[in-house]
Design a protein that fits this description.
Layout (H helix, E strand, L loop, with lengths): L5 H50 L5 E8 L17 E6 L2 E6 L4 E9 L4 E4 L2 E8 L3 E6 L1 E3 L2 E3 L5 E7 H7 L4 H4 L4 H16 L12 E4 L4 E5 L20 E7 L5 E9 L5 E6 L5 H22 E4 L2 E2 L2 E2 L2 E10 L2
Parallel strand pairs: 13-19
Antiparallel strand pairs: 1-2, 1-10, 2-3, 3-4, 4-5, 5-6, 6-7, 7-10, 8-9, 11-16, 12-13, 14-15, 14-19, 17-18
Length: 325
């Protein structure tokens, strides 16, 4: 039996190594070509979007509608999308956008990405279409340069000021009014909340709590108006919070909890907002129910929350402090 020589082993291993290097190099080359192709595609898409923006340069647009996928401007919890942008593109790399808080237009850069995606001022948007008299964007949720595909999308529709004035013969206030579908949606939710308390939803006009006695004081917490910041504006009507102080209470106490205010303005205890150990749940809930049914119903004049002028059951947050003296 012949034993293969050392030279044979070396030659064979060299061939294997050479083939491996060729395969690895080919794979790396394909990966590199893929990266280059992706960059070229993004550059081409960005150039295409820039050219589209260039066509509408200098035209003034007003946002007339902001809706979810289903065409409604209200979410199930009562959050209302409100169209408020006024924009124009003085160049394809910048945008003038009106700030309601500052009462003037601000200029911001436009950063382009791939697939008709770009950053306008503080929001990442995907251009859905550009027509003669209108444009539409879809709002994107982006973090760490990653687009998160949400289950629900938001769409912003703009008309040119000339189209609103000379073709529709209308004005921004009329075009921005909630639709008939919005009204029907809120009416249906109101009926459901009247039957099922946990179907309560936020009123765009929150419940109003007014003292009827000098023995109680109420202060609604508010968040200072923000400047243009990240495209988000805090909507305190989603969780209206009231700080209540009761004097000459039966004892000193402090509780934080939520309550329902129904369509007639009747307030009822809902649940504690602070975690309670099992042994404290019953006595604490009993105390908060007693405070609600006793002091609050006796000392407060309550106006229910409303949406589109329709009173309905909503949830309020209460911080109630009692002083014995």
């Amino acid at each position: 039996m012949r034993i293969p020589s050392i030279r044979f082993y070396i030659s064979r291993n060299f061939v294997f190594l050479f083939v491996f290097i060729l395969l690895f190099a080919g794979k790396c080359n394909r990966g590199y070509r893929k990266i280059v192709a992706e960059k070229e595609k993004k550059a081409a898409e960005a150039a295409f979007t820039k050219n589209l923006i260039n066509k509408i340069k200098g035209i003034k647009y007003t946002e007339v509608k902001r809706t979810f996928d289903n065409g409604l401007s209200f979410s199930p919890v009562g959050y209302q999308l409100v169209p408020e942008w006024r924009i124009s593109f003085p160049s394809r790399d910048s945008v003038n956008i009106y700030s309601p808080k500052k009462g003037r237009f601000l200029n911001a850069p436009v950063v382009f990405d791939h697939d008709s995606i770009f950053n306008v001022a503080w929001a990442w948007l995907k251009l859905k279409y550009i027509k003669k008299d209108s444009i539409q964007f879809m709002v994107l949720h982006v973090s760490d340069n990653i687009i998160h595909d949400e289950k629900t999308h938001v769409y912003m529709t703009f008309y040119t000021n000339d189209y609103i004035r000379n073709v529709l013969h209308s004005d921004t206030l009329k075009l921005r009014r909630p639709t008939r579908r919005d009204t029907q949606y809120i009416q249906a939710k109101t009926l459901l909340a009247a039957r099922i308390p946990d179907s309560a939803f936020a009123g765009t006009s929150p419940a109003v709590l007014k003292p009827k006695s000098p023995l109680i004081s109420v202060k609604k917490e508010t968040v200072p108006p923000e400047d243009v910041n990240g495209g988000s504006v805090y909507d305190d009507y989603l969780s209206p919070t009231y700080d209540i102080v009761i004097h000459r209470a039966y004892e000193d106490f402090s509780y934080s909890y939520t309550a329902f205010v129904d369509e007639k303005g009747v307030i009822t205890f809902r649940k504690s907002t602070i975690f309670l150990n099992p042994e404290f749940v019953v006595p604490y809930n009993s105390a908060m129910k007693g405070i609600t049914n006793g002091y609050l119903k006796l000392y407060l004049d309550v106006t229910p929350g409303k949406t589109l002028g329709i009173p309905h059951r909503s949830i309020i947050f209460l911080n109630v402090v009692g002083h014995k003296k």
